[in-house]
């Protein structure tokens, strides 16, 4: 199926640029005249996932594919990985460092919010290697 | 008033325009481009922010001015003066003297816009306390409202459905003067956005105002009258104002003026570029901690309006001095505290219609078509040089790209691509020159080297 793709590189610890990919994807979805509510859901999910790479991993890539039916986002990072994914999915669970918390992140709401706002969420992780998060949202009702 | 939703109070005088492209580069919505040797305004994209007016070196961007003659058709002529107009004069010039000078222009009564601020403040306070959808966005600046309509449709729901002090005061004046014959209410405007919002309102069916007077066009006349009066030193309440505005509200139209007495967490932002980047940020990251957002398109708020003759920083300082003077005066004379004429006005009288989104970002209303256009646009992006030189007549390579997608421009407009096409024989140098002449006008190519 025809569609468009975007790729972004994310650096761990780069809070200055955190959110740039989300902002660009948001603009693209506005250009595609996707319903505002749907844009909101995509942007909330993507932003949280983007920030997780910045806050918890060393570096990562975001691959976004958009076709007429849905948007699928794969965030693959090199980093510490997640030991217990079920635990990480719990509301309020966080291992964020004090410095990350001081920047207003680390409320432990990221993964739960991704779950809530996406139509499909998959988290795969290998401790010491990295994490791959896949998010899908249907663009039409 | 006519209801042409694409009406704008600014227009380009193509006789004066030298096609320098300064205005193209500063337009935040890419509403301008050069064609035929002059700047052209896309009325669907323009938000009346007046940024172009500020940079034009030859005064080719003009603001519609209905002049003073328009007040003649009314028997009772009311001037509605925002404090920012008082800020055009030094503190020793008494409000009463300025009001008198305005009356000499032919006005029967002079009222102050910020009389309506108390009611607005009360109603916003109520909304903040009721925890309505946050952040609540001020409805004050018409350029900001239009920006939200076209670029941030998601936030149209956050705009408070409340009229501004100008309209509220006008409503109150009409009530107070209902026994008078043929009342016409005229607002002294600091910018083109307020003219547009009178002639093509977006939050109401019809404006409560009858017309606007451009501040810059009456300033000299008033200044001349003031030069002829000997200043009175006698302290009398009539000398400080109509006694109907709270000292703080003198600052209403400046940055931070609306939020001074509001509860909760409020933020004020000025400058259209700052507003765009802030809205973009909260659109991505959410914004839970802010209850109320005041946004004014001009730096320093209305003190920076293009029709205000004096320097914006001096104006703002003068207003702060005036506010201080009023507040000291009321402290010394508590029996003379301001009387709010808007007291009997209900919310229903001052609420606005919902402001509807009008996206200029979408490639097409049909997402399928939009996607196809985006694919095309991505291909064009790879071809264009990302130089943003403006030689194509558009603000940036992205702007040219969009216009190609919209069928309003061609790849050949890009002067880098012209060279490439010449190289592979797809375009002769004469044809290239022809394209550039169409964009920039033949005149620019006439001089010999
Ligand atoms: N990309 C990642 N790499 C490593 N650990 C992660 C990653 N994403 C999430 N985690 C772990 O999952 C926890 C919960 O994530 P989240 O719900 O986003 O909350 P928060 O980021 O506020 O801590 C994090 O504290 C972290 O331990
Ligand atoms: S700034 Fe715009 S309107 Fe003014 S001369 Fe240059 S191109 Fe023409
Ligand atoms: S490089 Fe080409 S497309 Fe880009 S601004 Fe210059 S002329 Fe226009
Ligand atoms: Mg997180």
Describe this structure in words.
The complex is a heterodimer of chains A (141) and B (449). Chain A has one domain (4-138): Histidine kinase-like ATPase, C-terminal domain (Heat Shock Protein 90). Helices cover 35% and strands 29% of the residues of chain A. Chain A contains five helices and five strands; from the N terminus they run βααββαααββ. In chain A, helix 1 packs antiparallel against helix 2 (36-56) and helix 2 (36-56) runs antiparallel to helix 5. Mean pLDDT of chain B is 92; it is low at 233-238. In chain B, the strands form four sheets. Chain B has a four-stranded parallel beta sheet with strand order 6-5-8-9, with helices on both faces. In chain B, strands 7-11-10 form a three-stranded parallel beta sheet, covered by helices on one side. In chain B, strand 8, helix 8 and strand 9 form a beta-alpha-beta unit. In chain B, helix 4 (95-104) crosses helix 9 (215-228). Chain B folds into three domains: 10-63, 2-Layer Sandwich (Alpha-Beta Plaits), CATH 3.30.70; 68-350, no CATH class; 367-446, no CATH class. The chains are: A alpha+beta (141), B alpha/beta (449). Chain A binds chain B through residues 2-4, 19, 22-23, 26-28, 30-34, 36, 39-40, 43-44, 47, 66-68, 139-140, and chain B through 153-154, 280-281, 283-286, 359, 361-368, 370-372, 374-375, 378. Adenosine-5'-diphosphate is lined by residues 48, 52-53, 55-57, 77, 79-82, 88, 93-96, 105-112, 131 of chain A.
């Amino acid at each position: 199926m025809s569609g468009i793709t975007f790729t972004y590189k994310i650096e761990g610890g780069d809070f200055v640029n955190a959110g740039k990919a989300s902002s660009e994807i948001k603009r693209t979805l506005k250009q595609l005249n996707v319903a505002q509510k749907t844009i909101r859901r995509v942007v909330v999910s993507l932003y949280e996932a983007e920030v997780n790479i910045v806050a918890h991993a060393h570096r990562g890539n975001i691959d976004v594919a958009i076709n007429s039916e849905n948007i699928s986002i794969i965030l693959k990072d090199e980093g510490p990985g997640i030991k217990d994914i079920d635990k990480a999915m719990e509301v309020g669970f966080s291992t964020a460092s004090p410095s990350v918390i001081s920047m207003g992140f680390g409320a432990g709401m990221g993964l739960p919010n991704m779950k809530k706002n996406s139509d499909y969420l998959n988290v795969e992780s290998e401790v010491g290697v990295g994490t791959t998060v896949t998010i899908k949202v249907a663009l039409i009702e | 008033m006519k209801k042409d939703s694409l009406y704008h109070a600014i227009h380009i005088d193509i006789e004066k325009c030298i096609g320098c492209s300064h205005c193209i580069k500063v337009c935040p919505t890419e509403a301008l481009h050069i064609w035929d040797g002059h700047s052209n305004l896309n009325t669907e994209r323009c938000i009346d922010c007046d940024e172009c007016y500020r940079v034009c070196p030859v005064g080719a961007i003009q603001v519609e001015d209905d002049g003073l003659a328009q007040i003649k058709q009314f028997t009772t002529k009311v001037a509605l003066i925002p404090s920012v107009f008082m800020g055009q004069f030094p503190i020793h010039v008494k409000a009463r003297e300025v009001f008198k000078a305005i009356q000499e222009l032919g006005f029967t009564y002079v009222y102050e816009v910020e009389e309506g601020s108390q009611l607005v403040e009360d109603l916003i306070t109520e909304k903040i306390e009721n925890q309505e959808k946050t952040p609540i966005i001020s409805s004050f600046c018409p350029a900001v409202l239009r920006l939200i309509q076209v670029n941030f449709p998601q936030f149209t729901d956050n705009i408070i459905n409340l009229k501004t002090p100008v309209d509220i005061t006008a409503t109150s004046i009409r009530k107070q003067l209902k026994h008078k014959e043929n009342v016409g209410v005229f607002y002294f405007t600091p910018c083109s956005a307020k003219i547009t919002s009178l002639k093509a309102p977006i939050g109401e069916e019809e404006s409560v105002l009858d017309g606007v007077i451009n501040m810059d066009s009456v300033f000299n006349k008033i200044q001349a009258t003031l030069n002829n009066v000997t200043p009175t030193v006698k302290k009398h309440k009539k000398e400080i104002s109509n006694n109907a505005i709270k000292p703080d509200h003198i600052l209403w139209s400046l940055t931070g003026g609306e939020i001074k007495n509001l509860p909760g967490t409020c933020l004020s932002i000025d400058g259209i570029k700052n507003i765009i980047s802030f809205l973009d940020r909260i659109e991505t990251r959410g914004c839970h901690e802010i209850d109320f957002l005041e946004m004014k398109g001009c730096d320093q708020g209305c003190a920076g309006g293009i029709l205000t003759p004096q320097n914006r920083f001096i104006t703002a300082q003068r207003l702060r001095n005036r506010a201080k003077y009023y507040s000291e005066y009321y402290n010394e004379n508590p029996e003379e505290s301001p009387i709010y004429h808007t007291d009997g006005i209900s919310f229903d009288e001052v609420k606005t219609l919902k402001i509807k989104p009008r996206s200029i970002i979408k490639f097409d209303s049909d997402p399928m078509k939009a996607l196809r256009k985006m694919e095309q646009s991505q291909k064009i992006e790879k071809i264009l040089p990302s130089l943003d030189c403006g030689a194509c007549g558009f603000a940036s390579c992205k702007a040219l790209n969009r216009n190609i997608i919209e069928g309003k421009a061609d790849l050949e407009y890009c002067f880098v691509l012209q060279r490439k096409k010449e190289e592979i024989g797809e375009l002769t140098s004469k044809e290239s020159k022809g394209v550039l002449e169409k964009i920039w006008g033949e005149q620019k190519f006439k001089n010999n080297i």
